[in-house]
Amino acid sequence: MKRETEQRDDVSAAASAEDLRASTSDATDACRRSILKLGFGAFAAGALGLSGAVRAQSGTSQTSAAEHASREGQTIKLVPSLDTVRVGQIEPSAPTAVTIKSGDTVWYDGTWTNWGNEAKYGLTFKEREPIRKKYPNGPFSLIGPVSIIGAEAGDLVECRMLKMRPIDWGWNSAPPGVGALPHDFKPYLRYLKFDKERTAAAYVPGVNIPLNPFQAYIAAQPAGEKPVSANLAGNYGGNLDCAVLGVDTSIFLPVQVSGARVWTGGSMGASGEGNVDQTSIETAFEEMRIQYILHKGAALNVPMAETPDHWIGFGFSDSLENSLVACLRQMISWLSGATGIAPEDCYGIYSVAGSFRVTQYANQTGTVYSTIPPKGIHCMLPKRIFTAALHERIARSIRA
């Protein structure tokens, strides 16, 4: 494993960080802090397997949290290798890949394609089947873990997605028995070449797909000594597989173990919301940069995300109906706690302004994998509906 520290005057990292800072308003920062302090409140037991209790915040230091959030830190390089990548599951026994401080940026010097980087351009469907079957735990090549000094159970890690540049190709496929229509079509595999700027991929003549890179999997390692399938999602994060979590997104992950031990994988070039044939544009990244911010004693006990324009919550279950209900309940609880708006009014706000979208539709009747991804719903709540006064109220509430 290679490791080296770079100065923050690295041009690419500085430009990415500056772009991110420029896109975030004071109101956004205030509401981010409210997320960290107030959390979701009670959370439906059917979503992500949570008990629904929010942790008490006695003794939490606002000064300490501000110091963590303001530190810019260094850039630490992490190279994918047999020592730093696990396929299909996260392993508590895996040694730390890099150790960082809050505010540091991890420069991932590339990520791997699925199945331990064995997915290669041009392999036929028949040639890939033995590779797929070689990894019964799942396809994602997970790099990590990244340990954050001072992170303890009850804290929160903010993962700021600064840069994701794909390699020059990817693929979309539907193996037997997967997706929303597992029996309607024969299995297929389509390779896609990306343009030089990595902005688009030609799917069929006349159809160009804009690239919007994201990581399907990101998780703070859950408690316990057993490996955890990367097909799953939980209160630690995991297989969120949400197409809107691209550059300029913050993903918030509750910490369950010392150091947080963050894993990420499943590099995607683009995806429709719903992921209906079970795959996105699967690819790998030439380069990825994530800044990790530690928030001490934060009350958020489920994963949440923030874009420049929206707050995003998740619900996962065995059906889309149950996923939507769980997502809605947790988002009502969070919004009511953060703003003081009555829960029944929050219910109405989500009905008239929230957007509940299918994250993924998992159906794997003929899969070779030992675990099946849950069906997912994510809610996008637009920030523009709130007045500056309400933003300020949220900011005051977290300083009380």
Automatic annotation (TrEMBL):
Residues 1-25 are annotated as: Disordered. One of its GO terms (molecular function) is hydrolase activity, acting on carbon-nitrogen (but not peptide) bonds, in linear amides. SUPFAM superfamilies: Acetamidase/Formamidase-like (SSF141130). Residues 1-11 have a biased composition (Basic and acidic residues). InterPro entries: FmdA_AmdA. This is Acetamidase. It comes from Paraburkholderia ginsengiterrae.
